[in-house]
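Lecture 7 notes: from sequence to structure.
We start with the chain below.
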Amino acid sequence: MPRQKRESQRIPAMDDFKDDSSFSEFLKRYPAYKSTGILDDLRRSEYARLDQLEQVYLDYTGGGLYSEEQVRSHMDLLVENVFGNPHSTNPTSMAMTRLVQSARESVLDFFHASPEEYICIFTQNASAALKLVGESYPFGPGDTYLLTFDNHNSVNGIREFARSKGAVIHYSPVLPPEMRIDIEKLENFLEFKKSGGNNLFAFPAQSNFSGVQHSLEWIERAHAKGWDVLLDGAAFVPTNCLDMSKVHPDFVSLSFYKIFGYPTGVGALIARRQMMPRLHRPWFAGGTITVASVQGDTYYLHKGAEGYEDGTLNYLSLPAVEMGLRHISRIGYDVIHTRVTCLTGWLLDHLVALKHSNGLPVVKIYGPLDMRERGGTITLNFFDREGHFIDHMVVETLASEKNISIRTGCFCNPGGGELALGISADELNSCFALRPDMEYQDFRQCIDDKSNGAVRISVGLVSNFNDVQRFLDFAGEFIDRNTSEIL
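Predicted structure tokens for the same chain:
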């Protein structure tokens, strides 16, 4: 039986708040928001389910939302055509091959990456793209893998490939409370690289923990010191334009569902062509070779992107990637960025101002308190009227009861979390020395019940004032309450 939809209700748009004093104050403080009305129209026509189901979605850093048109167009393409596995030359295969190639070209075009300089390698997700770099990059004794404390676990994980090949691993710190790169220390690390010829520096364009946007100028500065550069673009590109005609990282990892919601299961590694001869894959698979022999014990990899795409691509989903990119292009990054900046600024203004009647803050924000070089991700913890930490998992449970979708934990960014939450290396090493394996609760007890996680909210493509105001109203409910009352 098909799922019944709730009775349709009018979807809030900008004019719905014209008599609301808080919205009037918001527009006075952030007048640029008025220029983003196209997104209210889009929410009404393509994302109506949000308001029909009374959902407040504040996890855009975790995953973007898809439009109805994206899904309809993709389904229409599939039901009106016959597509075969592109690893052949029959008519249905060639039809699919053309769409795969078109999707590759669309990705490069979207990021202004010249096809003479870059190739697009399709992967399962951003993590798979990063693993490709880790396993293929020619680390060796005397080489260095340098990365910032503020990185996703899939970037951290590359250190295991580097370590296994004899390279040295260095972490360059970020500085609480704003969680920005320690410029002096990073410059020193870049200056004193090891003597080997293969040194890789990795950092995120935007932190998935704090929302800090690290300067893309580090790419050129690292290149000038002889480093190759891996840029994690996953948290940055949903609301910011990455123009690869202006910055030239050697590798960029991407996840498409974070940009436009659909399809999941497809990411990409955009790699500089000049890097490809230096990479060495540790194995070969179906789809990656031009020739392989059992008796001759030899194989030859494809020279291009195909040499890095193991097995059969998720080929039926790739046309949906091109559709999603067109969707974002029609809207324009300027509009998306402006709306996200306005809403995030309003959230920061009011979260910082939340106080208990005794003057103690209701929340602590980990990251910048203004919109200077930051994106639409805010990470925070709640505290009761006596200054006691309120478990982030409790906050998530209470938010869920109000249909507010947020994220809690450390967001696969342990370096950012450890520094922000004040967990020392000595504490961590003492814990890890106790046992060979550890579950979450064991770890938490080991660090004396310190917070090892936080609450993350993030705005995106079709967020509106009502969404952020609903969260602020929710946050206000913690004023003058103690932990026992909340639990």
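Points to note: The chain has 19 helices and 18 strands. The first strand starts at residue 56 and ends at 57.
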